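Researcher: Please generate the 3D structure of the following complex. Treat every line as part of one assembly.
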Amino acid sequence: MADLVFVTGLSHAPGLTGWLDQAPQHEQDSLTEGFNRLGELLRATKPDVIIGLANDHVLNMPMDDIHDFCVGTAAHWKGPSAWFKDWVNVEPYAVDGDAAVAQAVFDGLTRRGFDTTSKSELHFDDNWSVPLLYLTPDYDIPLVPIHMNCVVPPVPSPETCLNVGKAIAEIVRNDLPDGMRVAFMGTGGLSHDPGGPKYFDVDEEFDRWFLELMEEGDAGRVLRECTVEKMVAAGDGGTTELLAWIAAMGAVDGRRAHTVCYEPSVALRCGMGCVFWDMEKETADA
Amino acid sequence: MPVANTKRDLAANRMIFEVRRDPAKYESFAETYESVMEEYGLSAEERQAFRDLDLIRLGELGVHPYFLPQVTRLFHGGGYNHNKSKAAQIYGRSVVEGQGKTR
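Model: Done. Output below.
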């Protein structure tokens, strides 16, 4: 029985590493401080492996072979994918994977009926390159990446994603080695509209409402109110990446999220922020 | 041209998907895109929309919206892609201001 020791939801938009100097000073300070703090919190829980869930951005699953989820099974990963290097402005990095953990995740999701495939080669863009720079700047914690389709309809429903999070927590507890410490991160969001008319807009009202939902910890309310349609209305091109945060919420057994930082950053063309769930000190009733 | 308008089997979508993964293609795309469009069998309408760098038209034809800013980066580079960068400005003129054609 392994332990889920840390769960987080965080933005991955490339402006955070690619053109942060174009943001107002207070946004630069708030986001740099917040994302660095999130990294400190994660590393303090000493995870042996991080399982991640993020938008594939139609980079690895071609449109004629899209699945809801794609587990990366390689023992070693490299990023950023070459064409995205200048864009994310992250130096080339290597990070270990964990083939055994990946296989357990793939088997567990498949057994539960989720539409899941696997790949041993994946191009990484901002989905991992931006979070890893803040969370594990030494790239010394293995990553099991799960790419998801959240932008080519039909996308998995919020209920499916919440259940995927629950399943991952079960897989950690039931199928991974005794004593292994596991972190889970869902990356993407908050509101943004790459490819739409609201490219230069952020829906701050939606974002703050969504963060309150995470802090409230009521999964039933999330499923009732945070529909795909509601996310699409807040930014058609990318806001559904928050399905990865809903999966994270599914993994935490009713705990409430803590918001670390949030900025409605027009300069970064994205509502930027991060939350975490304290899995060790708090119980579901806290 | 919402995400829901995406045509999964559109030749332009397959071209953009693969070009970004292949340095031999993306490094020279701005100069060689006519031959790349030929290789992937784009329709006459798709080809004209690329020549016009008309992102609204590409969206109407079924190109995935997420690819549209990437098209501007294929032609104008993706580095330092802030709101006043050439790539973002062209996106803004075409889609946000609604001009469509940008050349």
